[in-house]
Amino acid sequence: MKTLKDVISLKFKTSESEGVIFHGEGQQGDYITLELKKAKLVLNLNLGSNQLGSIFGHTSVTTSSLLDDHHWHSIIIERHGRNINLTLDRHMQHFRTNGEFDYLDLDYEITFGGMPFSGKPSSNSRKNFKGCMESINYNGNNITDLAKRKKLEPSNVGNLSFSCVEPHTVPVFFNATSYLEVPGRPSQDLFSVSFLFRTWNPSGLLLFSNFADDLGNVEIDINEGKVSVHINVTQAKKNRIDISS
After folding, report:
1. What does the alpha-carbon distance between residue 101 and residue 169 come to, in Å, rounded to a whole number?
2. Predicted TM-score (pTM) of this structure
3. Is 64 in contact with 45 (CB distance < 8 Å)?
4. How large a percentage of the chain has pLDDT more than 70?
5. Domain end marker among 91, 124, 149
6. Which of 24, 58, 227, 244 could form an S-S bond across to 110 if both were Cys, CB 3.0 to 4.6 Å?
7. 46, containing H or E segment
8. In this model, does residue 153 exceed pLDDT 80?
9. What is the span of the domain harbouring residue 79?
């Protein structure tokens, strides 16, 4: 296909921070890749470059963050020549591609949910998407419906299921005045804890525990955006250990 205009839209949700959402490329050096990197949305686009280097078409745009929250996010990409509107969750970003070409020339397959291994360094360093997509629409074609009815040739690689598995994790919301208290384990010489967290606040107490027999305490907090661990031991010469990330 050689197109002057493109409209691509879809919804996705994932708990992974990396993954290719869709990809297409052509023999002339054109390509379009939409992917998650570090939980941000990245659109890479090239409408053509020349070997002399005087026309360099690669354009990369990054938008939003924390998209690995397993909530639905909607994407619309509208292209008319070099003018692009990228809309994520109704927030639109307008930009103009580098180079001098207006047509996107994709003469290989377009892949959703990953990219085929081409032997190029860029292909094997990218992870395939892991999560759910719905309402995939590419230039008026309902890709989700065509895939479900097996009307695409070639169709899917690997196992696709037309359902969305919900994660088994149960989150807890704290409103800055609430806390969760659980019983300790007496006569244990090992203290081990792990958890995931998300917050917009730069500071706050994540965990606190006193050791038995007044031997000290352990504290995990966020201080100005950094996670710190403080261990106080009352019966040691160096009675405080501080670790900050």
Report:
1. 48
2. 0.70
3. no
4. 93
5. 149
6. 24
7. strand 40-46
8. no
9. 2-149
